[in-house]
Amino acid sequence: MLRANYHTHTTFCDGTNTAEQMVQRALDLQFDHLGFSGHMDEEIYMDWDAYVTEITRLREAYAGRLDILCGVELDTLYDPASCPGAEYLIGSTHYVDVDVPFPRAIDYSEEVSQRLCDECFGGDWYAMCRAYYELEAQVYDRLNCTFVGHFDLITRFNDQMHAFDEQDPRYTGPALEAMEHLVSQGVAFEINCGAHNRGRKAELYPRRSLLAALHDFGGEIFINSDAHQTECLNGSFDVAVERAMACGFTHVNVLAHSPAGSVEVHQLALDML
Questions:
Q1: Which residues 6+ apart lie within 8 Å of 241 measured at CB?
Q2: What are 34's strand-pairing partners?
Q3: Nearest CA-CA partner of 33 in 236, 229, 256
Q4: Pairing assessment for the beta strands 147-148 and 33-40 based on DSSP bridges
Q5: Phi, psi of 218, rounded to the nearest 5 degrees
Q6: Residue 262 burial by Cβ neighbours in a 10 Å radius (0-12, 13-18, 19+)
Q7: 8 A C-beta contact, residue 120 and residue 98
Q8: Distance CA 56, CA 86 (A)
């Protein structure tokens, strides 16, 4: 079993449980590493100083039992200066870069997504997808992120809305262009189990065909639950490991503190999990 998660939310942002409750759950699951990644974006942002203080306290309190890392999930359109000292950074694109008097998050609701498409892209979902992926392609340049979060989040409501065909070249073209560019920059991608393990989406992020392309491009992966509740901390890890191996991946990346205290990237063999 994979015993690490680096996409973890708490009551510091939009999570249900406290950071210490997440630590207790990680211990119950016999985790080796737990990375906290509170949101910093225009709609969900934390008291950064309080967050760092608490994660540091927990790291010291549970030293020797669990390796605890202080990370952040930063949006592509947000300011990296908002999270000084983060040990790792998830680069996520939740928004399209438009000026509207209502939420511009593509994962806010079906109604908001449709309104964004209608008012900003003339009702053309493929145009909105292209705009999303053109912004996504900039995530490493803007944030110097450790890995890319839920790459194809633009599909969040597509299972219900059937707004666009995820196999259509008008969709896959911009997605693959963005992915290939990011892989060329050396940044890893996460397999994000969040929506799947909460029963909100049939596919993981990235979907199977994109994950296979990521392997063919030479990309590297993390596997994360995107947990907002303790019960989801290792949710759908078995599905993600199986999917990764089916797409040709042999290893998954993990982050760990070195004896000197710096954060290092290691690899685990998927067939040993």
A1: 2, 223, 252, 270, 273
A2: 5, 68
A3: 256
A4: unpaired
A5: 90, 20
A6: exposed
A7: yes
A8: 11
Contact 8, 34 (CB under 8 A): yes
Burial (CB count <10 Å: 0-12, 13-18, 19+), residue 256: middle
Could you write out the DSSP letters of every residue in the chain? ---EE--B--TTTT-SS-HHHHHHHHHHTT-SEEEEEEEESSSSB--HHHHHHHHHHHHHHTTTT-EEEEEEEEETTS-GGGSTT-SEEEEE--B-S---SS--BTTS-HHHHHHHHHHHHTT-HHHHHHHHHHHHTTHHHHH--SEE-STTGGGTTHHHH--S-TTSHHHHHHHHHHHHHHHHTT-EEEEE-HHHHTTS-SSPBSPHHHHHHHHHHT--EEEE--BSSGGGTTTTHHHHHHHHHHTT--EEEEEEE-TTS-EEEEEEEGGG-
* Domain 4-272 = CATH 2.30.30.110: no
Confidence tier at 200 by pLDDT (50, 70, 90): confident
* pLDDT tens per residue across span 99-133: 999 999 999 999 999 999 999 999 999 999 999 99
Residue type, 190: E
First to last CA, the chain: 5
Statement: residue 53 has pLDDT above 90: yes
Instruction: Compute the distance between CA of residue 74 and CA of residue 72 in angstroms, rounded to an integer.
Output: 6
Statement: the pTM of the whole predicted model exceeds 0.85: yes
Nearest to 241 by CA among 211, 271, 196: 271
46/206 Cα distance (integer angstroms) = 27
271 burial class (0-12, 13-18, 19+ CB within 10 angstroms)? exposed
Cβ atoms within 10 A of the Cβ of 188, count?
18
